């Protein structure tokens, strides 16, 4: 009950803020939307928020139907790649700028692949391979880490239980 | 006899000096390979009574990689011989004290327990960094392949390489980039 009240207060504060700074505030938070501000000759002002094309839109990789994996429940299964925890160029696509794994409603992966990719992201972070994608307060240099965490380590992908 | 065969024969009968870069290498997997070179088992003239082992120079032993959480699980035991003289040192603590010790102990364990084991170990030269003394550097004539692929950090790639790399999925339309 207390939680619900708190969230309602938060929502009210957010609405107040929205009203203060108009729709521009909302659009600047949504990096994917662009605000257009047009003034017609008859004096009416039209402020619209349009969806921007995604920066990845023309870089998405697809696979021919004859090369697809035996499971086609999600795109990673179809691509049928042998992803290791050292493939940081692939794994870094699944994390936010603070190093958190994206949820399944965003990545749109099947449950098995979400578990596999999430575990491999953790492995890459523990090995210090993606140390530049981390919260601001964390040690960027793996050598400055605590005790056993500062030395190099590698992981075996067969230990992922799924 | 061809020139290459002749040189191969000289190399077999002489003491070769090999270089091994331990950067991101598992010491226990690389020890299996290095032990063959130190005992001379990589040569066709090998015999247990034939002293034909090679020298191996290991560099960057501070950068060795252990599997999983072995740095805090692997324990090195020592006993002084006196009562209560037992001590257990974790691998990461030993590596802090001496960055060559984990590699040296791994190779010592990989070699067969016999009377020439310590003689063969004398031909092993381990350096924590990439600096080698000049008198050793001048002898090196061969290189041992790494046993594991060396991973590349994300900071090692340029911004163009990261941006132009094919993407596997696109964000949903209402996703807020963070």
Automatic annotation (TrEMBL), chain A:
<comment type="similarity">
    <text>Belongs to the bacterial ribosomal protein bS18 family. Mitochondrion-specific ribosomal protein mL66 subfamily.</text>
</comment>
<dbReference type="GO" id="GO:0070181">
    <property type="term" value="F:small ribosomal subunit rRNA binding"/>
</dbReference>
<dbReference type="InterPro" id="IPR001648">
    <property type="entry name" value="Ribosomal_bS18"/>
</dbReference>
<dbReference type="GO" id="GO:0003735">
    <property type="term" value="F:structural constituent of ribosome"/>
</dbReference>
<keyword id="KW-0687">Ribonucleoprotein</keyword>
<keyword id="KW-0809">Transit peptide</keyword>
<protein>
    <recommendedName>
        <fullName>Large ribosomal subunit protein mL66</fullName>
    </recommendedName>
</protein>
<dbReference type="Pfam" id="PF01084">
    <property type="entry name" value="Ribosomal_S18"/>
</dbReference>
<keyword id="KW-0689">Ribosomal protein</keyword>
<dbReference type="GO" id="GO:0032543">
    <property type="term" value="P:mitochondrial translation"/>
</dbReference>
<dbReference type="GO" id="GO:0005743">
    <property type="term" value="C:mitochondrial inner membrane"/>
</dbReference>
<keyword id="KW-0496">Mitochondrion</keyword>
<dbReference type="InterPro" id="IPR036870">
    <property type="entry name" value="Ribosomal_bS18_sf"/>
</dbReference>
<dbReference type="GO" id="GO:0005763">
    <property type="term" value="C:mitochondrial small ribosomal subunit"/>
</dbReference>
From TrEMBL, chain B:
<keyword id="KW-0689">Ribosomal protein</keyword>
<comment type="similarity">
    <text>Belongs to the universal ribosomal protein uL13 family.</text>
</comment>
<dbReference type="GO" id="GO:0006412">
    <property type="term" value="P:translation"/>
</dbReference>
<dbReference type="GO" id="GO:0003735">
    <property type="term" value="F:structural constituent of ribosome"/>
</dbReference>
<dbReference type="InterPro" id="IPR005823">
    <property type="entry name" value="Ribosomal_uL13_bac-type"/>
</dbReference>
<dbReference type="GO" id="GO:0005762">
    <property type="term" value="C:mitochondrial large ribosomal subunit"/>
</dbReference>
<dbReference type="GO" id="GO:0017148">
    <property type="term" value="P:negative regulation of translation"/>
</dbReference>
<dbReference type="InterPro" id="IPR005822">
    <property type="entry name" value="Ribosomal_uL13"/>
</dbReference>
<dbReference type="InterPro" id="IPR036899">
    <property type="entry name" value="Ribosomal_uL13_sf"/>
</dbReference>
<dbReference type="Pfam" id="PF00572">
    <property type="entry name" value="Ribosomal_L13"/>
</dbReference>
<protein>
    <recommendedName>
        <fullName>39S ribosomal protein L13, mitochondrial</fullName>
    </recommendedName>
</protein>
<keyword id="KW-0687">Ribonucleoprotein</keyword>
<dbReference type="GO" id="GO:0003729">
    <property type="term" value="F:mRNA binding"/>
</dbReference>
